[in-house]
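Lecture 7 notes. Example A: sequence first, then its structure tokens.
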Amino acid sequence: MTMRAFSVQETHGKLHALRREINEVRAELARSQTQLHSVIVRINALEKELEQDQAVCDVHTKASPRSPATPVRMLGDSDWSGVPMSPRSASLRVRRVQERILHMKEQQILIKKRISRKESELSMLLSRLETIESIPQQVAALLPRQDSLATAVGPRALENQQLESELRFLSRQRRAKLMTPAARARLKKERQVLLLEEFDDQLPYRRDIERMLELRKSRSSQDPLDALTERLERLQRSQFISLPPSAAAPSRRGSCINNSTEFAGLRRASLSRPFTR
């Protein structure tokens, strides 16, 4: 997939997700505005009802306390239609209507806050949509220049890369040919030191590597007799084959050497015998 196709596909995916989010925010905003309109209508109706009930209360308050409770105005509600109101019931109804109006006004404030928040979110999403929609034009304006540069520089860059790789190979080969045996040995020793330093924190591995290097050194030695002598001396120093005096037993085939004199005799015998692999 080219850069142009990838950028166009990625931009289309982002645009689809962003448009879906914008539609959801718009739907929530429309619902909130509908709720706000219904709350405002309900508040206006309750305020008119409160005015009527307050008028009834005022008339009953101004009337003589001994006079009978005669209705001054019948309420418009279906529950109260044609029913005379007493001062107590009128005052209770006024208080109830006032509480409902207060509750509806609180709902109106919350809905207005939600609408303002959704409007700001919608404006931010629209600005992002505009920015993303302008990306393909910017990419289309930049890609022809990049393609022309690639066509102009591509073959030459590939040729330079091939020449550099060949030059590195020839220089390595020339250094290997010009290197003396002493230089090769020094380089090998430096590599061994680097290998040991790499495993310096892991002592078991370091010991294994030291043994492996010593074994290589003994195998690559020019004199096999010297290599065998060094190996026997190293075994004697490490006491891998020495046993305590209490475990003295006649040496047989396959048994360990349990005495330093026997070990010395074995060493003299091995030194006098010709070495065969």
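Example B, a different protein, same format:
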Amino acid sequence: MRWMKKAAVAVMAMFVFLPVYAESSLSPKDAYETARKDYLCAWMSMAAYDDPISELGRNMLVHEHWKLSKASVSDELGHARFLIAMSGDKEERPLLILSVAGTTDYTDVKADLSFDKTLWDSSAAAPDKTQNLPKVHRGFKRYADSIWNTQLDTMTVSQILNRQASEGDILLTGHSLGGAVSTLMGVKMIDSGLNQHLEVVTFGAPAVGNPAFVDTYESLLPLKRIVNSGDPVQSVVQKVVKNYTQIGSEERWKPVEGSHYFSHRMMVYLDTAIRNYYDARDAYEKSGGHIPENIPASPPSFFILPLQVTTDDALASDIPYMKKITADYYQKQLPGAIMGTEGKTTEEALSLARQNGCRYTLENELTARTIPSKNNEIQITFMQTLRTVDGHVISYSEYRMPARDMTPIEAALYVAAKVKPSI
């Protein structure tokens, strides 16, 4: 998986601030940069949680020299979880990303259900003159206030953001409740005069304020709200309580057809971001665009055959993305790895490995099967064979898991990371 500008292909790459255009007006290059940014945001929003795929995302960030601070703040009224990531590329403009987790426990649910509004600026007017002033969801505001004032080492989050605003770029992101809180964090930055080099991208976030709030901040807050078709949560506040209005520019995504996963889950947003990213990357390359190649070590160690995938017909559309995301992961995790092309036999791969000065070949196979008797649960089996270039098998590993809290594409990446070559 690629994270930086100089890597072969960007998975969580250098962040590029782009204006929001209609999809049809984007050039292949701008469409690629936009999809890459959304991909980064989706991974960061996923990484704020505590799922296995979230842990993998954090591990990959650390591998790419991002400095992470994962924190939470709790009281009797709520429990806010968030992740701050600081880019480690010294040659690029510094980027700080703050991502906020969504609902995961009962205190979060209580915050979600605190539908009553409160003044955004409680000092703005006397209690009897507040009707037309900006008001926001009380529970979301409490979360935003808690994170804003959280102490991390020697500085509060607000102080960290203040310092970063003078040195680099800031990206706020989050899913569901986390997206709502990220939106309010962005407004806090605007109120503090820290709105330069700021952008907010949310996934499935509900409305946070009344029309007066939207009228006040709509033109000031650079916010893109990504919403899956069929996601009921993003509109629940407006449906349950009157006088809530969405803010920002909405981008509607369509999850893969036939998926049995709940469309609001962050893993579904991440799955769509993966597909969009690789589709945009392919289109950009076909248009003549150049994405930097991975520079092999001298001499290279691994010759890696493309992932061989066997799936049910219903999962056939996942196969190209499984191959691409695992190839990217290996190229970064195994520096100097040479990726083979499709259709090579083991003997042909061994010969090519010797010609390229490699020491080992790595063959990976994956099967993904739907089990109707288990509520259409998808069972993943991953098999890996490591050989020396003379054909001697060093190791064979096999790993099985149900794809419950991740989609099949995400599961392919997860098992590839789980089963590491043993030399």
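Note on Example B: Residues 95 and 169 are 5 Å apart (CA to CA). Confidence is low (pLDDT under 50) at residues 1-22, 105-112.
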